[in-house]
Amino acid sequence: MKIATVRVLVRLLSVVAVLVAAASVTFFAQLLVPGDRATTILNLQNGREQEWTAAELAPVNQRFGFDDPLLLQYLHYVGGLLKGDLGTSYTQYQSVTSVIGAQIGPSLALTAAALVVAWGLAVGVTLLTVKRGRFVTGLGSGWETFAASLPTYWVGVVLLVLLAVKIPVFPVIGGSGVWGTVLPVLTLAIPLAGFLGQVTRDEFDKVLDQPFVTTARTRGMGDTAVRLRHGLRHAVLPGITLSGWALGALVSGAVIAENIYGRPGIGQVLVTAVNTRDVPTVSGIVLVVAGVYVVANLLVDLAYAAVDPRLRSHARVATA
Amino acid sequence: MTTLAPALRVPAARLTGLRARPGTVLALGFVVLVVVAAVAPGVLTDRSPTAIDFGNALAAPSWSHPFGTDEVGRDLLTRVIHGSRLSLGIGLGATALAMSIAIVLGFTAALAGGIIDTAITRVLEVAFAFPALLLALLLIAIFGPSATTQVFAVGIGSAPGYARMVRGQVLNVRQAGYVEAAAALGHGRWTVLRRHLFPNAMRPLVAVVTLGVGQSIVWASSLAFLGLGIAPPNPEWGALLDAGRLYITTSWWLEILPGLVIVLFAISVTTLGRTLQRRLEGASR
Amino acid sequence: MSVDTDRTRTTATAAAAPLPVAPEESAAPVPLLEVEGLRVSFAGKEVVKGISFTAHAGRCLAIVGESGSGKSVTARTLVGLTGPGAEVEADRLELGPHDLTTLGERQWRRIRGKQVGFVLQDALVSLDQLRKVGHEVAEPLAVHGIGDRRSRAARAIELLRAVGVPEPEVRAAQRPYELSGGLRQRALIASAIALDPPLVIADEPTTALDVTVGAQVLDLLAASKARGTSIILISHDLAVVARLADDVAVMQGGVLVEHGPVEQILRAPQHPYTQALLDAVPSEHTRGTRLVRPADGEEKPARTRRPVDRGRPLIEARHLVKAFRGPDGKDREVVRDVSFEVFGGETLGIVGESGSGKTTTARIALALTAPTSGEVLLRGEPWSGLSPRQRRPERSRIGVVYQDPLSSFDPRWSVARILADALSRGPNPPGNGREARARSRALLEQVGLGAEHLNAAPLRLSGGQRQRVAIARALAPEPDLIVCDEPVSALDVSVQAQVLDLLTDLQDELGVTYLFISHDLGVIHHMCDRILVMKDGEVVESGTADEVFERPRHPYTRQLLTALPRLEVAR
Q1: pLDDT in tens, A2-54
Q2: Model confidence over A77-111: pLDDT tens digits?
Q3: DSSP character for A163?
Q4: Phi, psi of C11, deg, nearest 5
Q5: pTM of the model
Q6: Cβ of B218 and A151 within 8 Å?
Q7: Which residues of C320-338 are buried (b: 16+ CB within 10 A; e: fewer)?
Q8: Do B178 and C409 touch (CB under 8 A)?
Q9: How far is A229 from chain B, CA to nearest CA, in Å?
Q10: How far apart are CA A36 and CA A32, in angstroms?
């Protein structure tokens, strides 16, 4: 009980630490922008590069609080964060929270769907192709190497050209309907499935050589049952530990997929913001993603404990 | 035959080296081709990457233009060949930066231990899983798009993954029997570090670096694809993709063929890296 | 299974009608399993070369051999799991009424578990770590469609109770890693006999276990045998075999070189390989002689010991205590008040089961671990109390030989570099490369290796050769003392004999002093002048080898000695 409590506390502390660290990074990122921030903002709003007079700069400095001491700005920023205020966009004169809030739903849906599809693909392919003779195994691992090497944008472009332009099965501009979501989800899922498949295959391959699998066979268990009952659970473990990383990769991919398919979501907002060098919006998105990422990782930990009872036990795991 | 099996496996693993696999040979061939294109593009083509031919704009792939032409009639294959120098440079630069950061952090964490190790490890864990693209975008938002920003964005983004690997590797080697055996012979800490720890921990990373160059190029081209790379007139693989996006529904080759070159390069490098990895493992286990 | 034989039998017949019941014992022993001319090859390489044997109900056949002999392949072939790419041929392969040569995979699956139970070496890896022990034990029932979920759970508990697992209800709900090694192995056996198969094959069932636990597992198999089960025991250990087997088949290089009743094989072996194998087993009988008989000689030559210097002890440990912080934050003492002294030219043995603290004691002597309290003196001067800087130049005075020599060599280094490095740490480091090579060559010769191994990578050497290089490295800086930590535990018995002979030869020639750690009482008795018996971090008994082994005073020592499988050979 004690150890479990300590572990939960450590987890919670690290969650807070991650968020504070991310907030600090984004705050200082805004300071790092070369040149005077008020000048940058006026330049952005007027679309030209020029010097501004102190009188012109004053209201901007006033509005964004650039005249305050650094520490005060920092506390103000962090205090705002606690209230859900992510700052004000340079270009849209709108709170970053409302800009992101309107867009995050479709992005989350896309990411979650892609994660599920990727796992399905990866597990399906490994179950069917691990240790099935040279040819089938080669086919399976060849597919995985290929898929894992594919950049998201290329998968997106190829799927778009093939299945929306040449053979118009799916719409070119996706929208957020189910039909329009198929291609973006596949775009994200295929490279990830390749990667998860490689990890799962390596482990599956090792597990099927383990004595406990041989033991199961000596009890008269058939190959399919051995794979499902004994192999699968062990084989997905390393993949699950990488799920935190996979989520990160999916978020990166989502930005690209949303841009290719013109899908609403934070990807669009983000790229526009980077292009206009709207640092508060970019920072806000980074922070929100950090938050989502922290929650997702807690979920991954829970999933891992569900699959591997050794983590729930108080006893130290003996060396395997 | 539990005791026999590992003994048998080692020579078997060694036989599947470079010679036996045609895939590895093809991969090596392609990588060499790209390197030649980067160092001396003139060897592969005598066309100019900037020669404009409006009469021949957006021509589909043909014998005279295997990759087709772009919106102002420039030969796409020539642009891809000339673009490899900058792309490869960004890939190598980013990997070198990432590895340098990784070695410093990884060794510090593993050798210092205690609270320093815990702190570095926690930070690396978070940074490793944090979407690399977002970090890169934040950097570009601050410093503006350029080749240098790309190198830093991709290098910093991929450093945590390598650093974790370096740390794990150092811890692994530090527990190895030969490190203790050296200590039992009376060698000092620095001697053990220099003669055993460093070379053995770095050995498997050779393969990782190979893989890393491919990944860096993919990452850099992703940024460029989003329009956040190098300004258009320079031929660079990612920049070509960015330029072609406008014509995606009509002229597919502008996106798919340069992309294919990047994909082939990434796969070739992965194949080489894996072969290298297998050989190194075979030699040390 | 006396517990519930009737029920299992009836359900078994009901579930798979075409399968007849296992043959009952009759007056004339009808062979249960008949194997004739069994050949197995992998990729054209024959590893089992036409062997024949039979197994009978209520008897145990042991197949004995070293690694590479083909004994495990044979065992797996008997359940149709030889492995991918294997070609199996046999003139005859019959289990009761079943002709095994004609079976397809589906039919094999009905044989496995129901007609043949299989017990593998290490239950930690032979049971699925992610599943409950109860599920694992009852899996044969589930696979063969016997009973429902609830009745299977009840049966699993009965089976665990029958194999002597205390609190079977609790254990059934735990996972394998929560059980001790002995309990795990019992659970594995419970699963193998769940369907009361007429034949049980046990592949090295006690190798991963401590002596006392191993003895209990052997008793369990003997009980099964007494109830009429036929047992095939696969083992490298002749002593284990002597405890359980009725018949013994000795395998070497895929061939059965000798086959007969256990008394005959152990007392009057005919084949030279069997004789060498028996000679190679270290025990109280082999003390003071070499283990490997010279090719021409009848008698094994006796050792010519140098006198032990009983003056000042070479190394002296006083009240050593070592505590480690456990995962629960409490300190656990793994070494408690251990004192000993080793005199020049003698061998002090530390024997104990896993977790007894013997390796930690060795590490303290090597000053690789600092004691929590107590001290180690080297030639009467402080050793454990020195600062690392003061100790470093002196370290070469104690050499070390590990169980796994390969991991103790830098994989990038050749034998020449390993030895040159060790020589450079000694009191007379070689002046140049040429001298280093010459002295390395001399060292190799001393440990029975040729100069051709100088440029080899340790990975390319055999296990015995590697251990010889490790010994050469330990000798190189001319140490006062060599600590040997389980130096022969990973080796086959014949290679073990050669390495032990080398160690005793070196002692006779050079007067080397050993601190010798082992779990193997036979090895300890063969090698050591004086012995410490350790249990749970404490020395429970110490004395000369003969005192400890012939007149043990502590109950634990007696228990160890009773549990020790012995070759009762009057030779």
Answers
A1: 556 676 777 777 777 777 877 888 788 777 777 777 887 777 777 777 777 88
A2: 888 887 777 777 777 677 888 888 888 888 888 99
A3: I
A4: -65, -40
A5: 0.80
A6: yes
A7: bbbbeeeeeeeeeebbbeb
A8: yes
A9: 24
A10: 10
